[in-house]
């Protein structure tokens, strides 16, 4: 596999947005205060991999505005290479607002015509991708615009030609496109990756069946190894000739489930980087995801390598 100087082990790209969260249960309409942060599936994953001790680059497109600067600095501060990210003049950084009312969480997006939606294949540094070990892409980038989809396809082509492993999480978001729009695009992208990382609920929608047997039969037709999240207390590893089941780690507490999937993917890809078997990598992914939901925030609770080791019992925590 290519290992070109100047490239991190993992390269990813996508939209990161400013995030304002209502601080109380009255919702956005009546909340007195909003907490400012940011979020994005790909930057969450990048931060997760960096915290686990591996090199990673995030190549997003942000507006040359206060939110864009805040996001770029924060991602860089987490040890992620943002040298290929873009601050675009005249293009706003996307924004999302989050609220929880009567125990039900909702997200409201303001991302139409955002900087990230103007992403295009020419933004990519082909040598940077070709020098990585893994390229990770998601269906969110494919959904935000036609040029976003073209960029995802081109990145996958570059990686495949260079022998770089391609990881694809469909991240189906029905607020961005309809299921009929999403289905052919996401299923096509699944045909061109090495690791397909869907949820079981997403597959039921994409394959139009609630039968696990039928879903697994479809997955076995892919060239990719499928890592299926969301089983009954386990994650499936689906290959052409076998299915393995990897149990979840029990979360110590559940405060916020946002970011758990990104935490899982970060742990799984880190396992691949370390030469783990697929099942061992999934085990690390399961652990990472279980630790994320124990605190509030899209990425803030992503664990470090030391915290993972402590959770596994390999290190003793000294309180004082």
From TrEMBL:
<dbReference type="GO" id="GO:0016301">
    <property type="term" value="F:kinase activity"/>
</dbReference>
<keyword id="KW-0808">Transferase</keyword>
<dbReference type="Pfam" id="PF00294">
    <property type="entry name" value="PfkB"/>
</dbReference>
<dbReference type="InterPro" id="IPR029056">
    <property type="entry name" value="Ribokinase-like"/>
</dbReference>
<keyword id="KW-0418">Kinase</keyword>
<keyword id="KW-0067">ATP-binding</keyword>
<feature type="domain" description="Carbohydrate kinase PfkB">
    <location>
        <begin position="9"/>
        <end position="304"/>
    </location>
</feature>
<keyword id="KW-0547">Nucleotide-binding</keyword>
<comment type="similarity">
    <text>Belongs to the carbohydrate kinase PfkB family.</text>
</comment>
<dbReference type="InterPro" id="IPR002173">
    <property type="entry name" value="Carboh/pur_kinase_PfkB_CS"/>
</dbReference>
<dbReference type="InterPro" id="IPR011611">
    <property type="entry name" value="PfkB_dom"/>
</dbReference>
<protein>
    <submittedName>
        <fullName>Sugar kinase</fullName>
    </submittedName>
</protein>
<dbReference type="InterPro" id="IPR050306">
    <property type="entry name" value="PfkB_Carbo_kinase"/>
</dbReference>
């Amino acid at each position: 596999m290519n290992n070109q100087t100047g490239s991190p082990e993992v390269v990813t790209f996508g939209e990161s947005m400013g995030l304002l969260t209502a601080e109380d249960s009255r919702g956005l309409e009546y909340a007195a205060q909003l907490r400012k942060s940011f979020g994005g599936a790909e930057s969450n994953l990048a931060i997760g991999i960096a915290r686990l001790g591996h090199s990673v680059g995030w190549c997003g497109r942000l507006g040359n505005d206060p939110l864009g600067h805040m996001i770029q600095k924060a991602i860089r501060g987490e040890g992620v290479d943002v040298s290929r990210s873009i601050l675009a003049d005249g293009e706003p950084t996307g924004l999302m607002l989050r609220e929880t009312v009567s125990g039900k969480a909702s997200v409201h997006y303001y991302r139409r015509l955002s900087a990230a939606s103007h992403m295009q294949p020419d933004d990519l540094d082909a040598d940077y991708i070709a020098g990585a070990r893994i390229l990770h892409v998601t269906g969110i980038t494919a959904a935000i615009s036609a040029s976003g989809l073209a960029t995802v396809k081109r990145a996958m082509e570059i990686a495949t030609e260079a022998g770089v492993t391609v990881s694809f999480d469909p991240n189906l978001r029905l607020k961005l496109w309809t299921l009929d729009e999403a289905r052919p695009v996401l299923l096509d992208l699944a045909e061109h990756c090495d690791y397909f990382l869907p949820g079981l609920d997403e597959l039921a929608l994409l394959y139009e069946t609630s039968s696990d047997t039928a879903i697994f039969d479809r997955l076995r037709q892919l060239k990719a190894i499928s890592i299926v999240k969301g089983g009954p207390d386990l994650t499936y590893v689906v290959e052409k000739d076998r299915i393995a089941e990897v149990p979840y780690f029990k979360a110590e507490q559940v405060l916020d489930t946002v970011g758990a999937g990104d935490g899982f993917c970060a742990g799984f890809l880190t396992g691949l980087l370390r030469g783990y078997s697929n099942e061992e990598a999934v085990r690390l992914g399961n652990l990472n995801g279980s630790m994320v939901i124990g605190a509030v925030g899209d990425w803030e609770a992503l664990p470090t390598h030391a915290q993972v080791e402590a959770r596994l019992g390999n290190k003793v925590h000294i309180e004082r």
